[in-house]
Design a protein that fits this description.
- By secondary structure, this protein is mainly alpha-helical.
- Helix content is about 80%, strand content about 0%.
- About 5% of the residues have low confidence.
Length: about 260
Amino acid sequence: MFKKMRRLLPFILLLVIVTSCKYEKLLKSRDYKLKYQKALEYYAEEDYMRADGLFEQLKPILKGTKQADTVFFYSAYSNYYERSYLLASHYFDEFKRTFGNSQFAEEAEYMSAYCTYLQAPRPSLDQTYSYQAITLFGLYMSRYPNSERVTECIKYIEELRNKLVEKSYQSAKLYYNLGDYKAAVIALNSSLDDFPETEYREEIMFLILKAKFLLAEGSVENKRIERYQSTVDEYYSFVGEFPESESVSEATKMFDSSQNILKN
């Protein structure tokens, strides 16, 4: 088997060289009809890199013709299949704006949102693409409420929102872990304001209580009373919402300690 492959290797290399030369010649050609035909052939053969090379050359030439939307649409998909999601999203959006009456317009708008969704990173990183994708999916659903893709849009939006929830929670908790309790209280409350139904609600509320208590303990004299009172108020909020929490015992200890200091 190995010997056979070694014998075939020179022929394979020759074929690659000949094919490459033909493609380079095609790129330099002014036979745009042939270029269009070959671009579609490359696309059908899933050779998206060569297909898009020709589509890019054809875009300004065929602009305004009946083939224009096909060239722009397949160019966008070529980038998508090559996993160039940033370019693909841009080209699908450009297609939607340029060819609003095309039969491909709806699909292009969905794909622009989907390619943006594919760029959204893990929750610990910047979530700009997550916000953009949520907006784009929302716009798509408002324009095409009866589309069969609406179910997928809802699923992706939910997934992206979960990323945003986790990002918000992780960022807020980081202040607590760093011992910056004043910033932690602000960030944790902000996370609850942004995502009141978060799955981390119980833990966030407990961390707010604990951060307030630790902030009070480390405060200067003229701010301790105010901050211990805030701890007591936070305790009532936490226990009122999560009376069966595993953290109630620890919360009660902070409450009792705060009460004793306030009484004295």
